[in-house]
Design a protein that fits this description.
The complex is a heterodimer of chains A (233) and B (271). Chain A is an alpha/beta fold. Helices cover 30% and strands 25% of the residues of chain A. Chain A starts with 5 loop residues before the first strand and ends with a strand. By secondary structure, chain B is an all-alpha fold. The chains are: A alpha/beta (233), B mainly alpha (271). The interface between A and B is large, with 47 and 38 residues.
């Protein structure tokens, strides 16, 4: 595959946590073409989240290499982050803020809009976009409520649309639809499939739901830190 | 439904915007935390009113020097320093709740995030300091307008140096509980050896040498230099040249910022 078509390239990835006796990843390798989609499956502890954390630059690798849109995750992490949208397995919302305030923080951190102290003072483009996303993900009525007051499923929806809000070229999703009902899960995947086609968005995700494999071009089964099988969904 | 991309990335000023939103989040959290608001106001007042009175006989050796006013200036500096330092524990809290990952996968420089935290916690500390100043007349301390003007930059220096101290000492600790224990261990000796409540005259040479290692010593001394400037009690209240205090605090703050932000970024990535 020519370099310019490789959105993600992972070579012989090894990871050992500090103080651990064994490697959690033992030479994982895969590639994802630009606009492609890869699903990592496997039992708990297989190393799926570790692979995604390394790609998201929130964790260092012990050996091997990983590149996102041609940028090395170890040396060019600032360039890698510009390309990414990430949904973590664990919730990462500030529960003291409203859903909108969480979103505003995200938009400003990603350099989409300049800082303004309140929602009303933010650029009109931001407000329109926030309302449209909230509508699409079914949280329009909850947008200005404290996140603490939302149910687990609602919080997950907020995290999903926050990750998509800056229109990333690469999406990293760690069990993104855990806790969501079927309807919103279908909406989410339908939106992602459209974005993949329209904007060549690349997706790497993990899941425990077999029916979600269908959204991937390739499924890699991880077992004990290695890719045990690579297959079509 | 597809939403067209209408976003233009503002390259210039985005780091400043990021710093401001990180700072705003901390201030917003403080203003919504009623318990913290009450405690942050009550604690310095109790210390000033209580210990200031108890230490009156000690200070009576210096004619005309009021114990409550002396304690007020020290406690004001300590409140700013301590509050800003302790606020940095919220970085650990963010890590525990995984919110820090949301900040750390963004394309913002690490130093910007850390500077935003420092700015936010410094503003929180300044709010607490302002509240203490507002109720100071109830304790019999009435700063003049000129004194308030000079106190403002001094208060900023105390807050920022406190936040930097918190950053370098607490940020690599594994949990909030550990950080709170370590913080008590680090701040209590400073209260005793930095001249917060009583002058440092008469300390043994060993304790005096140790007190020079306490950053709060320079913060409290700088605060007193600002408050007592031009008064007859200046010489009895201030132990160092304020230029030396300011210089030590500046160098200390810069060093802590550089080391602390590196340690924090590293601890986030090498888990």
């Amino acid at each position: 595959m020519p370099d310019r078509y490789r959105a993600i390239e992972v070579r012989d990835l090894v990871k050992r946590y500090r103080g651990a006796r064994h490697d959690v990843l033992r030479g994982v390798s895969f590639e994802v073409a630009e606009g492609g989609s890869l699903c990592l499956v496997g039992p708990n502890g297989a190393g799926k989240s570790t692979v995604l954390s390394i790609l998201a630059t929130t964790m260092t690798l012990t050996d091997g290499s990983a590149r996102v849109m041609g940028h090395d995750v170890l040396t060019d992490h600032a360039l890698v982050r510009r390309e990414l949208g990430v949904v973590f397995q664990q919730p990462s919302l500030d529960l003291n803020l409203s859903a909108e305030a969480n979103l505003r923080m995200h938009a400003i951190l990603y350099g989409m809009f300049p800082w303004r102290p309140t929602y009303r003072l933010m650029a009109a483009a931001y407000r329109h976009r926030a309302e449209a996303f909230a509508e699409m993900f079914g949280v329009a009525d909850e947008l200005h409520l404290p996140t603490r007051a939302l149910s687990g499923g609602m919080r997950r929806r907020v995290e999903l649309f926050r990750a998509l809000f800056h229109d990333p070229r690469v999406l990293i999703l760690d069990e993104p639809t855990a806790g969501l009902d079927t309807e919103i899960r279908d909406t989410f995947w339908a939106y992602l499939d459209q974005r993949r086609r329209a904007r060549c968005m690349t997706i790497v995700f993990t899941t425990h739901l077999h029916q979600e494999d269908a959204h991937a071009d390739t499924v890699c089964a991880l077992s004990e830190g290695r890719i045990a099988a690579s297959m079509l969904p | 439904m597809i939403i067209d991309r209408t976003v233009t990335r503002a390259a210039s000023g985005s780091e400043l915007s990021a710093l401001l939103i990180v700072a705003q989040r901390d201030v917003s959290k403080f203003l919504h935390d009623r318990a913290r608001l009450v405690v942050s106001l009550a604690f310095p007042l109790i210390v000033i009113a209580g210990l200031g009175g108890v230490l009156g006989p000690v200070l009576a050796r210096v004619p005309g020097l009021d114990a409550t006013t002396f304690a007020f200036t020290g406690v004001l500096a300590a409140t700013l320093f301590q509050s800003a330092a302790m606020g940095i524990i919220s970085l650990i809290e963010d890590r525990e709740t995984d919110f820090s990952r949301e900040m750390f996968v963004s394309p913002v420089r690490r130093i910007t995030i850390v500077a935003g935290k420092l700015a936010g916690e410094s503003i929180v500390a300044l709010c607490q300091g302002a509240a203490v100043l507002i109720v100071a007349p109830l304790l019999g301390v009435r700063p003049t307008f000129a004194q308030l003007v000079v106190l403002l930059p001094t208060a900023i220096a105390c807050s920022v140096s406190g936040a930097a101290f918190g950053l370098v000492t607490l940020v690599s600790l594994p949990s909030r509980r550990t950080a709170q224990h370590v913080f008590s261990f680090l701040i209590l000796p400073q209260f005793a050896l930095s001249g917060v409540l009583a002058p440092l005259h008469g300390l043994s040479p060993v304790l005096n040498a140790i007190s020079y290692l306490m950053p709060l010593r320079y913060a409290a001394d700088l605060m007193r230099a600002a408050f007592y400037a031009g008064t007859p009690h200046y010489a009895a209240s201030v132990s160092e040249n304020p230029v030396v205090d300011a210089l030590v605090l500046s160098v200390f703050t810069c060093l802590c910022l550089v080391v602390g932000s590196r340690v924090f970024a590293r601890s986030e990535r090498t888990r």
